[in-house]
Structures are given as C-alpha cells and as structure tokens.
Amino acid sequence: MEENYFVNVLKVLDASIERGTWKGAEIEGVSNLRILTLQAIKNIAEASQQEEAQVELITKKSGEK
Fold first, then answer.
1. With 49 labelled, which of 11, 25, 40, 59 sits at a CA distance of 20 to 30 A?
2. CA distance 12 to 8
3. 3-class SS at 20?
4. Tens-place pLDDT, residues 52-63
5. pLDDT attached to residue 1
6. Of residues 45, 16, 42, the one with CA closest to residue 30
C-alpha cells in the first residue's frame, strides 16, 4: 500500500509537470519532491526484495519448497 501511495504521488507530479501547472520559481521544490518520492519508492522496493530473500532463506532451511 505504501509503495502505491508514492507511485501515485509520482504520477500526479509528472502529470502536473507535463500540463505546465508549475511556475518557474516552483520547479525546484517540485523537483526535490519528485526526487524524494523516487527515493522512497526505491527504498520500499529494496526492503521488499530483502524481505523476499529472507523468506526464501528461511523456507530453504526448513526444507519447504
């Protein structure tokens, strides 16, 4: 759910940028928000991959397939 939130924020930012919603002076703040949003998505994806790897390791150790 959290990842979906950030993906949707990114979509809103990108759509508003494409439509020329922001004034020149606002672009830097919007860009910073976009960078932070992308980083949050990457962090969630990395944490998810680590969690999947841990589950796989545990199931291998327990002999499950």
1. 11
2. 6
3. coil
4. 888 887 877 777
5. 67
6. 16
